[in-house]
Amino acid sequence: MGSYGGVTRVGGIGDAAVRAAQSARSVEEFFEAVKRVVRPVLRFDVCACVTVDPQTLMNTGGDYRDGLPSAMMPRMLDIEYREGDANDLADLAARPTPVGLLSRETRGNLDLSPRYRDIMRPLGFRDELRVVLRDRHGAWGALVMGRTVDAPPFGFPELAVAASLVQPLGSALRRLHLTRLAEGNASGAAPGLVLLDGGHQVVHATPTVAMWFDELAHTDGVPHVDRGLPPALYAVAAAVQAAGAAASHTSWMHSRRHGRVRLHAWRLEDPTATSARTAVVVERAGPAEHIALIVAAYGLTPRERDITALVLRGRSTADISHSTGLSPHTVQDHLKAVFDKTGVRSRRDLVATFFARHYLPDMTPA
């Protein structure tokens, strides 16, 4: 790989992207800095920057300003979470190198991909490159890039650069998650309810919905799909409509105004009651959602997570030993690992740190 902006090696591009994004205080700023560095190298025509839940890989927001037209998002998410397609984020996230090119995933027959047939080809795009941003603690986001038919195809140099972005940007995005949890402000808004029909068009939305979605636009009091309803909402709604899916699903997203927001979707089974097919409740995320992201972002193992939760509840070493079936010595070993990862020295420090970083801000008026 040749030199770009002082970068003379492939891995250095990822390092340069991280340096550019270090001052970001929001996901939008983070991805804007990343795109500024990698655009001259990867030369994409569109780029959707996605954040995902490390536990479920569900869409939780991101930056779509350089992505596909908003009118295409419902169909995109329908394919992503209901129908399935090649170059799937969940499949890529499980690979040693989570980078995928749609043309390769379909072995050159792009017409096998509904995403290509229904979205990319009508818009004049030739291929799609996906990069999952992942570190050893989980997947935190993805870059979804496309080139038009007028541009040269993605090649080995671009794939090598994409692979170099995976770990450094994954770690940087994980740290940003922690920062956002620590700085999030409380919201006094009442929960909102959105009813969607089979095509994910809004049938009804309570007035409180507008308070949760900063970018939500309204016409005659009804929010419209093509006017900014967040992709994360469509993702959770599509999840309950997928074949064989559970009747309900819970996810979350980041709101610039309200911080972490819980999304809970239900599949409506009685078609005679209403034209709506899916109901989604939007409300402030509680401690359960916070702790799930916190332990993932700190890189705690499942056993360390369980012990941390017991410590936060005030349980003694003897109590934890009895509950988990571990010896007190093993419990202390796990606690030492937790202290090392979270940067504290004692149980008291651990409880105080979690409270100060991740709960006290939610108790402080915005």
Tell me what the structure shows.
With 366 residues, this protein is of the alpha+beta class. It has three domains: 10-183, Beta-Lactamase (2-Layer Sandwich); 192-288, 2-Layer Sandwich (Beta-Lactamase); 300-363, Winged helix-like DNA-binding domain superfamily/Winged helix DNA-binding domain (Arc Repressor Mutant, subunit A), CATH 1.10.10. It has helices at 10-21, 27-42, 73-83, 89-93, 102-105, 114-123, 156-183, 209-212, 231-241, 287-298, 302-312, 317-324, 328-342, 347-358, 360-363, and strands at 46-52, 59-66, 99-101, 125-135, 138-148, 192-196, 202-205, 218-219, 222-223, 248-255, 259-267, 278-284. The chain has a five-stranded antiparallel sheet, sandwiched between helices. A five-stranded antiparallel sheet has the order 7-6-12-11-10. It is globular, with a radius of gyration of 22 Å. The termini are far apart. 40% of the residues are buried.
Supply database-style keywords.
disordered N terminus; transcription regulation; alpha+beta; single chain; Beta-Lactamase; Arc Repressor Mutant, subunit A; Tscrpt_reg_LuxR_C; 5-stranded antiparallel sheet; DNA-binding; 45% helix; 366 residues
